[in-house]
Amino acid sequence: xxxxxxxxxxxxxxxxxxxxxxxxxxxxxxxxxxxxxxxxxxxxxxxxxxxxxxxxxxxxxxxxxxxxxxxxxxxxxxxxxxxxxxxxxxxxxxxxxxxxxxxxxxxxxxxxxxxxxxxxxxxxxxxxxxxxxxxxxxxxxxxxxxxxxx
Length: 150
Known about the structure:
Blueprint (H helix, E strand, L loop, with lengths): L13 E4 L2 H10 L4 E4 L12 E7 L19 H12 E12 L1 H4 L4 H9 E9 L13 E8 L3
Parallel strand pairs: 1-2, 3-4
Antiparallel strand pairs: 4-6, 5-6
Helix pairs in contact: 2-4
């Protein structure tokens, strides 16, 4: 897996990429990784499976069909937080890039949901031009969480 430290050489890596071309590139770059080309909401990884989850969640003011989380009425980025929390083991670490909407939205239900399941390790607010080269100007946050042991 590229430039991994020797201590991580026996690690197993998984990736999920919605875009077909990006997914095929990832499969070529990381041939030992298990890359799924599909939406994260369509994956069936078991709960408590990963030690660490790192991602760039999609931003949007829409919901995805995800039967496990539909009852919460989560927007797509909130759904990704909920699902990722379920997929990491107790004590596992999550680092997700999301729009400022996760931390700044008026409705605090999603933050309550997250706070009941994980501790905030830290957060970094990026400037609104951090993704300008990708064609978007949005203020984004990198949020680091540790799943609670209870």
